[in-house]
Structures are given as structure tokens and as C-alpha cells.
Amino acid sequence: MPVPISQAWTVASYVLKQKLKGRKRYPLVLMLEPLYRCNLACAGCGKIQYPAHILKRELSPDECFRAVDECGTPTVAIPGGEPLMHSQIEKIVEGLVARKKYIYLCTNALLLKEKLDLFKPSKYLTFSVHMDGQKEHHDFSVCREGGFELAAAGIREAVKRGFRVTTNTTLFDGADPKSVRAFFDEMMDLGVEGMMLSPGYSYDKAPDQKHFLGRARTRRLFRAILSNRKPSWQFNQSMLFLEFLMGKRDFRCTPWGMPTYSIFGWQKPCYLLQDGYADSFSELMAETEWAKYGTEANPKCANCMVHSGYEATGVDYTFSSLRGLWETAKATLFTKNEDDEALRMLNEPVAPIHSFNPLVQIDSKPTKLEETRA
After folding, report:
1. Is domain 27-355 in CATH 2.40.50.100, yes or no?
2. Helix (H, G, I), strand (E, B) or coil at 153
3. How far are the Cα atoms of 119, 158, 163, 199 from residue 193, in angstroms, in the given order?
4. What is the torsion angle, in degrees rounded to the nearest 10, for the CA atoms of residue 274, residue 277, residue 281 and residue 285?
5. Using alpha carbons only, what angle is made at residue 181 by residues 176 and 185, rounded to the nearest 5 degrees?
6. Least confident interval from 213-222, 271-280, 340-349
7. Radius of gyration of the chain (CA)
8. What is the DSSP secondary structure assignment for residue 249, as one 8-state letter?
9. Cα separation, 24 vs 254, whole angstroms
10. What is the helix (H) or strand (E) element at residue 310, kind and residue range?
């Protein structure tokens, strides 16, 4: 099972409590960014293009704990930057485990083998390893040759030592569905408990602005990848969110579902956009003009189908009615999704980005983005 029963029960109980209290807006996962510093410079990343004095800053463990306590979610994701570069990351994790929070420490795993001794295996701690596809594609995506092998070695060692390990994969235009499906086989063979998927978001600061997916292309790509699914593939996320990516559901964004706390404070309105900061979580929830965001309300949201905006929508839908529970159960139990047209799409010729592009250099100027149907 990709998620332990204790974790599933904790999350379900939390969501049901929010429903019983009549809360229409509630957080599901806290995105805790203790630093922006990283040991990679990925072309599609919009998180690390800051001056040196910003990249040197870190949240203290106490600042992290205050944010976690204030937000109150049962699950905390720790992205970055590269969290394993934080000078006190083991203290942050230790404090969150003591609070019985389910932690997804997001890492590129270049330092994972070296840092494993800092941590103890726990049902509350999962290393969520950034893997963007098979070897050649991953190395191109993270702009580092040999990155795949280092990450795979870190996964093997962590699994061997009894740690929970998942993968998180971001897909861009030019991804080869056949290669992605083969990649799923490779990750399951490494022993990960589940995989997380998302299309990339077109960060204004990302150096490569050419290969972000439009909504129509996202649906087509994920339909090809996720239809006719192998039973061995395990996914560590909402099955309804995956159906949304395949074009089977029409969800609206839930920008408050995964609030972000970083060295700048509580980020408005979500993990992906930076439209100012609040001093407290309560201020974030009360003063953010939520109606200004979403696919139809904001051009910056036009092509977004990212998990941080829509996975919470899927979870909320699950617990909003008996129908939602039934549809979630059905999507979880019957995962094959037979689709002859999707099989045909797998045989269409694809020219992966890395076959005709050099590694992207971090010097591109951001361009204005508009909604596309590409």
C-alpha cells in the first residue's frame, strides 16, 4: 500500500473534522521551505533565482515549529532549495516527528547517502526524491550529468536502511510517454513505496520558458501515460487528481490547500505564485483575495494543473459526499483505465527535448505567459 493505514486515517480524520466544523477553506499540507539554496540549477525551477544573501538565509527550527503549529495540518512537505543543505535539518525533522506530523522531505538525493546517518527511520518521515524520468531525461531536466545515478544510489541506500521513500516527478512538454512508463517500472524496482506526478508550472523566474505544458497537451500526455496502467505501479497521491490530469475530471484550484511558509513569511496566495507575504497563517487566510486566483480569474493560473493547487481539490471532493467517497474508492481499486486511443498515442513519434537541445544555461529573461490550448 503506497500510504500506511495510520497516515491515511490521520488525514481522513483531519479532513472530516474540518467538514464537521463547516470550514470551506482549510489547509491540507503545509509547504515548509526552510531555505532556497540548492546544489542544482534546474532549468524549469523558479525557486532558486535569488541573490546570494537570500540564498544564505535559513529558517531556524523554532521558526519552522511555530509555522507548523499555527497551520495545524497533519502533513508537512519540506521542499526548497535542497533541504539536506540546511544546517539544522535533522533538528527540524526530529521536532516534526515528535509532533507526529507526516513529513515529506523533498530532495534531489545528491546528498542523501551522505546525510542518512542524521535521521532515524520512522513512519512519520518520507524522503520524496526528485526524479524526472529515465537517466538521460532526468539528467537533462536537472542540468547535471550523473544526477540520476546519484539519486538512484541514494534511494537504494535509504530503502535498505528502512526509510520510507517516494519519488516526485515533474513532466514538461516533450516528455515521451513510453519512457515515462518505463521509468515507473524502474522506480518500483528500486523499492519506492509510491510515486507522485505533476505537470510543471511556468514560473516567471524559470530560465527555460519554452517547455511548459498547456492544459490540452497536459491532458493528452497524462492520458497516454496513465491509461492501461500496470498493477505494479503505486502512486502516493489522490487518484482523483490523476484522473483530473488525464482529462476525466474538471476541478477548480484550491490555492489555500497547500500554504507555503518560507524565509519571507506566509506566501500569497499559494506555493507557485508570489503576490506578497503575510505575517501569520490567520492573516494569510483572512486577507488574501482568493477570488482573484484560479484558471478563469488570473492569467498566471491559466495553464496550471499542478498538484499543489489541485490535489487538495481532489481530497476535498472525496470527503464532501458519499458519491465522492465511492468515486475515490473506485478510482483506487480499479486503476487499469483501459483506453485503446491512449495505446495508439504511445506509438506516436516523440522527439524528447534532450535529443535536440543543449543543457539550458541560467541566463534567460522571463517572458510574459498567456493561456494556451497547445
Report:
1. no
2. helix
3. 19, 12, 10, 21
4. -70
5. 140
6. 213-222
7. 19
8. -
9. 10
10. helix 307-318
- Cell, residue 313: 481539490
Bond from prior residue into 81 cis (ω within 30 degrees of 0): yes
Q: Is 265 helix (H, G, I), strand (E, B) or coil?
A: strand
Q: Is 357 helix (H, G, I), strand (E, B) or coil?
A: coil
Q: Name beta bridge partners: 235.
A: 195
So what's the pLDDT on residue 351? Answer: 65
| C-alpha–C-alpha distance, residues 284 and 280, integer Å | 6
Measured CA to CA, the distance from residue 28 to residue 14 in angstroms comes to: 9
Q: 255-307 pLDDT, tens per residue?
A: 999 999 999 999 999 988 889 999 999 999 999 999 999 888 888 888 899 99
Average of pLDDT values for 88-95?
Answer: 98
37's grid cell: 539554496
Answer whether 0.85 is exceeded by the pTM: yes
Torsion sign across C-alpha atoms 79, 80, 83, 87: negative
Give the Cα separation of 185 and 180 in Å (integer): 9
Chain-centre distance for alpha carbon 58: 21
Distance CA 14, CA 40 (A): 36
Instruction: Give the list of residues 6+ apart from residue 56 with CB closer than 8 angstroms, or none.
Output: 37
Q: How far apart are CA 80 and CA 37, in angstroms?
A: 7
**Residue with cell string 509510491:** 194
Three-state DSSP class for residue 220: helix
Average pLDDT on 248-259 reads 95
Distance CA 8, CA 26 (A): 18
> For residue 125, what are the contacts with CB-CB under 8 A and spacing of at least 6?
93, 97, 103, 105, 119, 163, 164
How many alpha carbons lie under 13 Å from residue 345 in its C-beta half-sphere?
A: 20
Average pLDDT score over the chain: 89
